[in-house]
């Protein structure tokens, strides 16, 4: 289903260990907030209730999910995150990251989500285009409604705004294009990184 229509991408984040009282005083801000950049390739910054700062700003094309990542890639990502962290919180230069991780999601070349019946009795909501929690919650609920024959204004709305992700070109053109587009987005967002 949806073969050659989805682009697997990973986004990465790093977070600190919980700040101690001295570090929290040096930070000087409040807890439990998050900022998402206007530019999708910019930096997301969050402060958790348990005093951890999170930096997220790196995307990678991962055509073979498990084989497209490595410890060296994660170290490079962590270094990028460290630079973004220090640009925002130089007073916390001694606070290390405790974890760096990545998660995969799907985007499409035409930024279209799929929602509907793939074949009789097989339903799917796919290609969140970077808004997985929001998209998954809403579309999953409406997909269940659709599967049992329900009808609502929200179901009709989601059917109106979704469609079919466009076909991808074959490799190596796909990988070259995706990596180039990610680099261009990072370059355009460099002031937000």
From TrEMBL:
Q: Which Pfam families does the protein's record reference? A: DAO
Keyword set includes Oxidoreductase: yes
Q: Where is the FAD dependent oxidoreductase domain?
A: 4-146
Q: Does the keyword Flavoprotein apply?
A: no
Protein keywords: Oxidoreductase
- Could you tell me what this protein is called? FAD-binding oxidoreductase
Organism this protein belongs to: Bowmanella yangjiangensis
Its organism's taxonomic lineage begins at: Bacteria, Pseudomonadati, Pseudomonadota, Gammaproteobacteria, Alteromonadales
């Amino acid at each position: 289903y949806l073969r050659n229509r989805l682009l697997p991408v990973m986004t990465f984040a790093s977070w600190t260990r919980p700040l101690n009282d001295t570090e929290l005083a040096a930070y000087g801000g409040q807890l439990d907030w998050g900022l998402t950049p206007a530019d999708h390739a910019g930096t997301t910054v969050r402060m958790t209730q348990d005093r951890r700062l999170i930096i997220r700003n790196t995307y990678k094309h991962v055509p073979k999910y498990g084989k497209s990542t490595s410890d060296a890639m994660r170290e490079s990502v962590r270094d990028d995150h460290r630079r973004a962290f220090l640009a925002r919180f130089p007073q916390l230069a001694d606070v290390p990251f405790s974890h760096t991780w990545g998660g995969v999601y799907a985007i499409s070349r035409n930024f279209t989500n799929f929602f509907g019946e793939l074949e009789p009795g097989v339903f799917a909501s796919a290609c969140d285009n970077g808004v997985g929690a929001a998209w998954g919650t809403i579309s999953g609920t409406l997909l269940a409604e659709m599967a049992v024959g329900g009808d609502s204004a929200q179901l009709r709305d989601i059917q109106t705004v979704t469609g079919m992700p466009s076909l991808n070109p074959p490799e190596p053109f796909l990988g070259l294009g995706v990596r180039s587009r990610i680099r261009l987005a990072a370059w355009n967002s460099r002031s937000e990184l």
